[in-house]
Amino acid sequence: MWIRILEVSGKAVLKLFLLSFIGFFLVKRNVLNKERSKNLSRFVVGVSLPVMIFCQLIKNFNFNQFSNWWVFPIISFVITLLGLIIATLFFPFLNGLSYKLQFLSLVAFQNSGYLPLALVAAILPKEKLGLMFIYIFLFLLGFNLIMWSLGVFLICASKKKMHFELANFFSPPAVATILTLILIYFRLNKFIPFFIYRPLEILGDTTLPLAMIVVGASLAQLHLDKIDKKAMFFLILAKLIIMPTLGLFFIIRFKLSELISLLILIELAVPSATSLSLIVNHYKKEDLLISQGIILSHLFSLITLPIFLSLYFSWIW
């Protein structure tokens, strides 16, 4: 089981690294410059990501089939809250409000879609896989909403402009989530013809590769000597060790169902969200920790993720 989990998680993370390397390479070859990468980021945040959210919800969700659907967004809120609490414990060791808020975002928000989907697709048997996919999509309902509202607010906040800005809670992905849920609730999604839905689905499928290209482009513009080793050490400790350890303890203590417990553990054990780099670029904020945090957390998750999954399958299943 250990070798299988290591292979699956390693391949999933490696795919992300290969995609980000394309962005890194394009910048180094002067195909992408700073302005072009920002324009690409604006396209992802403003167009392809909202379209992907719309298509995924239209395709996989309805209120009648899952009467307890609200449980999964609540789980996502609780996991985010846990990350916020744990991150604040390290604030005394970090200097500067912007550093602290970007560190906070890296700990609180995780790669909640692509990696979990890739992992469960290779680990679970087919008879359990379909239901697990639905659980992940329901989890993403809450995650996308809070990620593209609170996450945007945290990164856009500063010493000079720390007050609440309502606009930060209505980014294009957040609006897409809310409006699509309204369409589904009133069953208006049934009137969307396939010849319109299919091109939108193709457009939404470009989100992940484009997002990782943006991450790689951001990394290429960093100076390696400016990597904050102390902050990165605390990030790995908080995100990849403390959070999944608490999750494993919670699962064992309360004996949750196998699929829900697996969902919780995976979401607590995966690395930082790649979408944070999109937010930084889209809102023209200085990338102090985000890109290095995304890359290094994914790199170290090659070790920590298989360990916690192996512990889970050894003790729970």
Concise synopsis of the structure shown:
This protein has 317 residues and is mostly helical. It contains 14 helices and no strands. The chain has helices at 2-28, 34-60, 71-88, 97-108, 114-123, 126-147, 150-156, 172-185, 194-204, 207-220, 229-254, 258-269, 275-282, 290-315.
What do these coordinates show?
The chain has 317 residues and is an all-alpha fold. The chain has a single domain, classed as Na+/H+ antiporter like fold (Up-down Bundle), CATH 1.20.1530. It has 14 helices and no strands. It is globular, with a radius of gyration of 19 Å. It starts with a helix and ends with a helix. The relative contact order is 0.19.
The SSE order reads HHHHHHHHHHHHHH
Mean pLDDT: 86
CATH architecture: Up-down Bundle
Q: First CA to last CA: what distance? A: 12 Å
**SS content category:** mainly alpha
From the alpha carbons, calculate the radius of gyration and give it in angstroms.
19 Å
- CATH fold name: Na+/H+ antiporter like fold
Poorly predicted segments:
none
β-sheet strand percentage: under 5%
What count of structural domains? 1
Task: Give the biggest sheet.
Answer: none
CATH class: Mainly Alpha
Oligomeric category: single chain
Label this structure with key terms.
317 residues, Na+/H+ antiporter like fold, mainly alpha, 14 helices
Secondary structure layout plus pairing:
Elements lengths: L1 H27 L5 H27 L10 H18 L8 H12 L5 H10 L2 H22 L2 H7 L15 H14 L8 H11 L2 H14 L8 H26 L3 H12 L5 H8 L7 H26 L2
Helix pairs in contact: 1-5, 1-10, 1-14, 2-6, 2-8, 2-9, 2-10, 2-13, 3-4, 3-6, 3-11, 4-11, 5-6, 6-8, 10-13, 10-14, 11-12, 11-14, 12-14
